[in-house]
User: What shape does this take?
Amino acid sequence: MSKRPHCPICQYPIKVCICHALIEHSPPCNLVILQHPSESKHAKNSARLVKLGLPDTEIIVGESTNDFIHLKQQVLVSPQDFHVFYPGEQSLPVEKHANTLRLTPPKTMLFIDATWRKALKMWHLNPWLDLCQQWHFSAPPGGQYQIRKTTVEHGLSTLEAVAYGLELCYDFDGRNLFSLFSAMQAHHMAYRN
Assistant: This one.
């Protein structure tokens, strides 16, 4: 039995291709997403949209330190170059420091793409992340991810977190990312109905 034909560019099934909304940009810094393996298989994962809109984004699929060994080695050499966006015990509210960050912006921004429970597990399995400058969002915009639910108040999808982090640190305009996000969700809802 043959699989549904997929678009060679966006990799979505032809019926729900989102290339009409695709405008590629280069991220203003090194952008790395640590993606839990279960998210990589999820058709609605927003990290793949980040990679479409910002093709230089690096997505590393894994869970434990062994999966991220190359990145860990880079962090050990220059931890000051890496800023991780995760609400850990040592994290600072990025909104309060946005002006300073724009003067000396992060060289590499790290995000974790997983459910909250799995993200917490990944955090504990990778203690080397504690060496990075840690940030969290204290006043994020309302989430626009209508086709996936979260029980976490002010929870954002990975795409929303990346767009907001880039906006705060680089005054980056994430409208093109949100166009992809809206197109994917609209197609998914239409296809489901």
User: Anything to note?
Assistant: The first helix runs from residue 37 to 40. The helical segments are 37-40, 47-53, 69-77, 98-103, 116-125, 158-170, 175-192. The CA atoms of residues 163 and 174 lie 5 Å apart.
